[in-house]
Structure formats: C-alpha cells, structure tokens
Design goal:
Number of strands: 19
Shape: globular
Radius of gyration: 23 Å
Number of domains: 2
Order of helices and strands: HEHHEEHEEEHEEEHEEHEEEHEHEEEE
CATH topology of the largest domain: Pseudouridine synthase
CATH superfamily of the largest domain: Pseudouridine synthase
Helix content: 10-25%
Number of helices: 9
CATH class of the largest domain: Alpha Beta
Length: 354
Amino acid sequence: MTRRESHLHGLLIVDKPGLQELLGQAGQALPADLPRSASDQLSEEEMPRLYTSHDVVQRVRRWSGQRRIGHTGTLDPMASGVLVLCLGQATRLVEYYQGHDKTYYAEVKLGAATDTYDAVGQVVETAAVPSLTNTQIEHALARFRGDILQQPPVYSALKQGGESLHRKARRGETVTVAPRPVTIHSLELLDFQAPDRLCLRVICSAGTYIRSLAHDLGRALNSCAHLTLLRREAAGFFTLADSQPLGAIEAAAQADTFEHLLLPAGTHLAMPELLVDAEVAKVLGQGQKVYLPASTKPVSVQAGETPAALAKIVTNDARFLGIGRCLKQNKLSSEHHAGETLWKAEKWLANPTP
C-alpha cells in the first residue's frame, strides 16, 4: 500500500451508481407508483444500499491505498453519473474543479411529493395531475431558466451550525433553509409521457438542486412532483465518456493497473496556461516571486470561466506544475520591471505530472 500511495496522483472520473443502476443489478426496477416511498414496495433485502459520494471516496481509498482523496462536488445517493475525484497531489486542486457547470438527465413524476424531493423519501402529499400539453409544460419550464432563487431541500448535505441539514431533519428538528441564487442555463423537455412523467435535460450552475427543481416544477404545473431518476452526464469538461464504473476501478486495483485509469492533474482546468522554462519553474517551486516579461502571457486553451489572475503553470515540455497567481503588472515605462508581470505559485504539486 505504501508503494502505491507514493505514486498515485491524478484525477479519477467515477460513474457512480444510483438507485436505478443498483436495482438493475439486482434484476429489479423502481416501482411505477409510490404510495408511500420506493422502499415500501421492496423488502429490506431487496432495497439496495445507496452510495453517497463519501462512500465512493472510501471505496477508492481502500482499493488504491491512497488516503488523500477528495471529490469536487457531491452527487445525491439516488443519483448516478460523473463524480470527479482528486488523488494525492491533485487534492491541492479540488477548489479549482469546484463551481463548474453540471449537466443532468432527469425524470420527474407528477402527482406525489416526498420529504426528500426524490424517490427514496416518504410521500408527504398527493395531488391530481391536470391534463397537460407540451405547450403548458414548456411555459412552466420557462419560469426556471436563467438566474433564479432556489430553495434547497432540507434533506441535503448543506451544513448549518457545522452539521449537515439531513442529520437535523432526520432527528425531527425544524430546519429552515434560505433560498439561494442559482443559474439554469438550459432546461429542455426531452419527453412527456402523459399523464404524469417528464424527461428533462438540465445544464446548470454548481449548487443547483435538481430535486428542488422537480419539486417546484410540480407546483408550477398545479400539482406536486418528485424526482425519480437523476444522472449527471457532465461535471465541467468531464463527461460520462471519461468515467469508470466502480467494478472496473476495483478490477484495475486488483490487476495493479489502477494508475492507467488516472487523468493527469490539471486536466480540463478552466484557466489559461502560462508556459515557463526550467529556471522560472524552479524559482516558483521554491515559493519565490518572479517577474516575467510582457511576452510571457497566459494563453487561453479552452472556453470556460477563468478565475481572475490565475493560470496553469506548464513547462515548455508540457508538464503541469501547479497554479500561479499574477500579483502585479507594471505598465509605466518609468517603473522598474516595466511591462513585466509579477507571479507567485498559488498551488504547487510536489510531484508534478511527468
């Protein structure tokens, strides 16, 4: 384990299993109707244990021997899809991978609302479903596109007073959550299975709860609703095509080929690149500041939001070293280091990508 832990550094994109996948592995399907909850129609032996994002991290720790692992954004236990893990030195970069847009495929059932806003919760309300047309549904969806205020579910990983809200809610405590600003860039109706099922694709900002969207959409359609399926198709620039199922990850660990699944640290970071030579890299790596000539400018290599004054530090032979911050730009010709920019290392990898 010690040998492995010393060299496993990079990104692992996991295809986390959700409720539908786990039921499918057991040869079952989610009940079409939920009189109380999904679990009410399944015995304790039949109901699969859902994976939290932390559960996935724990499994990968055990398989890889690498203790330093962090994920870049929680995925609900019921949900499946892209979960980005940072291993070893790459954990220094977690904050830079957070906050990127997410893409989801979602299925919503009208006529019943649950306390968790999804299919694993207890049904707390039922309502008639009006006869709907696609035009009426599109009109309701339009209310949620763009910048909106969204009320997160009380059964969530959000913290209040240092404790997760879902823990407070399960103890029966009264939990109040203030609405939060989120952005829904795209909300597409893929299919309407009359009278009560909607299939959606959502592209949204980090922090958006699709469970809340389903709940609120039910109200907008003069009924109530809950989420029955959620699959994260993309997190930032990482997609399902980049991901590995847990079974493949475990098999790679057993075959001692785990590192073949890792992407290099710095992959798909949404910021420009700053190319430096070996001498500048050495100075920055020692924690010193360095002036760079005006000709050495960060080069944008992909679309996406770029944190102000930050850049990926990359050597001329394409080795990613870390994140640099521009501290100052001297524009006046009378100044010392005129036209140059002052840089320092913001996050440096002790074992840079070869």
